[in-house]
Amino acid sequence: MHDFVIDNAVVVDGSGGPARPGGVAVKDGRIAALGLDLGAARERVDARGLVLAPGIVDIHTHYDAQLTWDPFATPSTALGVTTVVIGNCGFTIAPCRPADRDLTLRNLTHVEGMALEALRAGVNWDFETYPEFLDAMERRGVVPNVASFVGHSSVRTYVLGADATKRAATDAEIAEMRRLVLEAARAGAIGFATSTLEQHNGENGIPMPSRLADEKELLALTGALGEAGRGVFMLTKGMTSTIPWLEKVAASNGRPVMIAAMFLDPGDPTRVFKELSEIESARTRGRELWAQVGCFPLGMEFTLRHPYPLEAFLAWRPAIEATDEADYRRVLADPSFRATLKAEAAIPGVPNRFSDKTWAHLAIMEVTRPEHRGLVGSTIAELAQASRRDPVDVFLDFGLDGELDAMFDCKLFNTDEGEVKKLLRHPHAAVALSDAGAHLSFLCDAGFGLHLFGHWVRERGDLTLPEAVKRVTSDVATAYRIKDRGRLAPGAWADLLLFDPKTVARGDKRRVNDLPTGASRLDTPAVGVQGVWVNGVRTVDERGVRRECGRPGRVLRDFGA
Ligand SMILES: [Zn+2]
């Protein structure tokens, strides 16, 4: 007798093969049988008109801190995700000495877009080393399955202390960091993650520790994965990390390299395709390089008080360093500050940042002064054109005119969907980049899988549903050597997603206040999701997340080579 059967569904099994009528039978957390006539079960779910697929595997999340107080990894569970990978970009909370806890949180608060008070109140520091971190997560329990990178920034802080954001490491420090990465890989990390991205700054614009690493350090730490014979090297790359250099890393440690974030950049629309062809040629030499791509325009909501997208400009530095609001306003008004900013914005082809094309995708969403209400919906490019002024002046003057807290909506990358389609279909692409759990005040792309099925399959027809399901389930599970997940097959774990293909989508953005201390974040509800199961336990039903579902997820530690 099976524990339960879902039948009368359209089964899309994650392999990319055609959809078939039928269902699954589940026993002891695993799929016992697939197809028609599944036999007797204690419970049946009639899935008429619905699609049954593997649960979504989100390989790019930042739930490291949040999972210590929220086992659901809200909102990913509601959005059909059954496995999350944390520690991306190397922003982790382990290993961490008690004396460095506050420093670690202060570094995180900026990139996470989460209030420092919320992190201070929320994080449960019941660990110090990386193996203890995994053990503590296992003890507390999780709702989705969780796999975790060991993060470069934490390892660096553990060894260099406050110097981690200031200087290169000595040979002895590199050796100690390498030992920690090896220890983590052996304890069950899914790999080693870092960032060389120029926008990745901690408190007061100080670079995240990993950005101080030199080539020698990176080769040593990635070499630990080679020695362990397991793990993925994940990085979010800045200007200094070229594809040929990453191929060199792959050649030296023999491990896969997952390269984020591969966006279509309106400031340099051919670059991503050039990099993809470099990845293709690395593949012909046997180096497993992956391009991590996303299915949303990289949209951000932000205010001029916390202007994350602008912080990638070197010329923005004086604004980051301003000591208080009066000083900040003085910087924004300074003509020489504006002149250097305009000059930098006009340099074409600078990767991954705001360009002079961005003004057309930067719209005013909410204003604080009633007399500005008529401007809501306008883009800065439109206002600049109408007033024949430079967009930099229009934008900064608007902020100074009582609108430092006005909300802007900015679409930086992936705005041309006809081109993005090519990224989503590329054989060496991994579809992810939700950044779930990070940038909470600016964006919420945790529903990327539902958006792929609703927008790119149903509305645009750029992918078939079996192709789209494969992209966010078995393709990424395979890239990360996650065993027995991402596919509906006899013997695989019963991580399942049941949805209505006629309506599936990511819902509209809204602000909610469910972080510790009542801090707010952006949220998007699921549309069309009828059920989610993790290891055979139902975590979501027609009404949404089942708070009483227990903690059926596993901390994944055993990965294939
Ligand atoms: Zn990230």
Please explain how this structure is put together:
The chain has 561 residues and is an alpha/beta fold. The protein is 30% helix and 20% strand. It has 17 helices and 24 strands. The strands form five sheets. Strands 1, 2, 3, 4, 5, 17, 22, 23 and 24 form a nine-stranded mixed β-sheet that branches. An eight-stranded parallel β-sheet has the order 6-7-8-9-10-11-12-16. A three-stranded antiparallel β-sheet has the order 13-15-14, with no helix packed on it. Helix 4 (152-160) crosses helix 5 and helix 12 (380-387) packs across helix 13 (391-400). The two termini are 35 Å apart. Zinc ion is lined by residues 60, 62, 88-89, 236, 435, 438.
Task: Explain briefly what this protein structure is.
With 561 residues, the protein is α/β, with parallel strands linked by helices.
Counting helices, strands and paired strands, the structural category is alpha/beta
What ranges have pLDDT less than 50 throughout 5 or more consecutive residues? none
| Ends apart, CA distance between termini | 35 Å
List how many beta strands DSSP finds: 24
Number of helices: 17
Specify the biggest β-sheet: 9 strands, mixed
Mean pLDDT reading = 94
Helix content percent band:
25-40%
- Compute the CA-based radius of gyration: 23 Å
Strand content bin: 15-25%
Overall outline: globular
- Bound compounds: zinc ion
Secondary structure layout:
Elements: E1 4-11, E2 20-27, E3 30-35, E4 44-46, E5 51-54, E6 56-58, E7 81-86, H1 101-112, H2 116-122, H3 130-140, E8 145-151, H4 152-160, H5 171-187, E9 191-195, H6 215-228, E10 232-236, H7 243-253, E11 257-260, H8 271-284, E12 289-293, E13 298-302, H9 317-320, H10 325-333, H11 335-345, E14 362-366, H12 380-387, H13 391-400, E15 407-413, H14 417-425, E16 429-431, H15 448-459, H16 465-471, H17 474-479, E17 496-499, E18 505-506, E19 510-512, E20 521-523, E21 526-527, E22 529-534, E23 537-541, E24 544-545
Parallel strand pairs: 1-4, 1-5, 6-7, 7-8, 8-9, 9-10, 10-11, 11-12, 12-16
Antiparallel strand pairs: 1-2, 2-3, 5-17, 13-15, 14-15, 17-22, 18-21, 19-20, 22-23, 23-24
Helix pairs in contact: 4-5, 5-6, 12-13
Bound molecules: zinc ion (ZN).
Zinc ion binds next to loops.
